[in-house]
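User: I'm putting together notes for a lab meeting next week and I want to include a structural view of one of the chains we've been expressing. I don't have a solved structure, so I'd like a prediction I can at least talk through. The sequence is below, exactly as it appears in our construct file.
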Amino acid sequence: MKLPENLKYTSSHEWIADNGDGTVTVGITALATEQLGDLVYVELPRIGAALARGASCAVVESTKAASD
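Assistant: Thanks for the context. Below is the predicted structure for the 68-residue chain, given as C-alpha coordinates.
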Protein backbone atom coordinates (compact mmCIF):
# COMPACT_ATOMS: atom_id res chain seq x y z
CA MET A 1 0.00 0.00 0.00
CA LYS A 2 1.38 3.41 -0.96
CA LEU A 3 0.62 6.24 1.47
CA PRO A 4 0.28 9.85 0.26
CA GLU A 5 3.48 11.73 1.05
CA ASN A 6 1.74 15.02 1.92
CA LEU A 7 -0.14 13.53 4.90
CA LYS A 8 1.05 13.18 8.50
CA TYR A 9 -0.48 10.28 10.46
CA THR A 10 -1.24 9.67 14.14
CA SER A 11 -0.97 6.33 15.91
CA SER A 12 -4.76 6.38 16.31
CA HIS A 13 -5.43 6.47 12.54
CA GLU A 14 -6.08 10.15 11.92
CA TRP A 15 -4.25 12.21 9.32
CA ILE A 16 -3.57 15.90 8.69
CA ALA A 17 -2.54 17.75 5.54
CA ASP A 18 -1.11 21.27 5.56
CA ASN A 19 -2.93 23.27 2.88
CA GLY A 20 -0.11 25.84 2.77
CA ASP A 21 -2.40 28.78 3.51
CA GLY A 22 -2.59 28.57 7.31
CA THR A 23 -5.33 25.93 7.21
CA VAL A 24 -5.23 22.16 7.42
CA THR A 25 -7.41 19.30 6.26
CA VAL A 26 -7.95 16.39 8.66
CA GLY A 27 -9.35 12.91 8.15
CA ILE A 28 -9.28 9.32 9.24
CA THR A 29 -7.60 6.34 7.61
CA ALA A 30 -9.36 3.58 5.71
CA LEU A 31 -8.77 1.25 8.68
CA ALA A 32 -10.45 3.71 11.06
CA THR A 33 -13.36 4.02 8.63
CA GLU A 34 -13.79 0.24 8.59
CA GLN A 35 -13.59 0.00 12.38
CA LEU A 36 -16.00 2.89 13.04
CA GLY A 37 -18.73 1.98 10.56
CA ASP A 38 -21.18 4.66 9.48
CA LEU A 39 -20.59 8.10 10.99
CA VAL A 40 -23.68 9.56 12.67
CA TYR A 41 -22.23 12.74 14.25
CA VAL A 42 -19.11 14.90 13.85
CA GLU A 43 -18.34 17.95 16.00
CA LEU A 44 -15.52 20.22 14.83
CA PRO A 45 -13.99 23.35 16.39
CA ARG A 46 -15.20 26.71 15.14
CA ILE A 47 -13.36 28.17 12.17
CA GLY A 48 -10.30 30.11 13.33
CA ALA A 49 -10.06 28.35 16.70
CA ALA A 50 -6.53 27.80 18.02
CA LEU A 51 -5.76 24.15 18.74
CA ALA A 52 -3.11 22.78 21.09
CA ARG A 53 -0.71 20.12 19.87
CA GLY A 54 -1.82 16.70 21.11
CA ALA A 55 -5.25 17.88 22.26
CA SER A 56 -8.52 16.48 20.92
CA CYS A 57 -9.86 18.60 18.08
CA ALA A 58 -13.08 16.80 17.14
CA VAL A 59 -15.74 14.41 18.35
CA VAL A 60 -16.82 11.58 16.06
CA GLU A 61 -19.70 9.20 16.77
CA SER A 62 -20.45 6.19 14.65
CA THR A 63 -22.73 3.20 14.60
CA LYS A 64 -19.97 1.20 16.32
CA ALA A 65 -18.14 3.67 18.61
CA ALA A 66 -17.73 7.20 19.94
CA SER A 67 -14.26 8.76 19.89
CA ASP A 68 -12.53 12.10 20.54
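A couple of points you could mention at the meeting. Residues 13 and 32 are 6 Å apart (CA to CA). Strands lie at 7-9, 14-18, 24-28, 39-43, 59-62, 66-67.

User: Perfect, that's what I needed.
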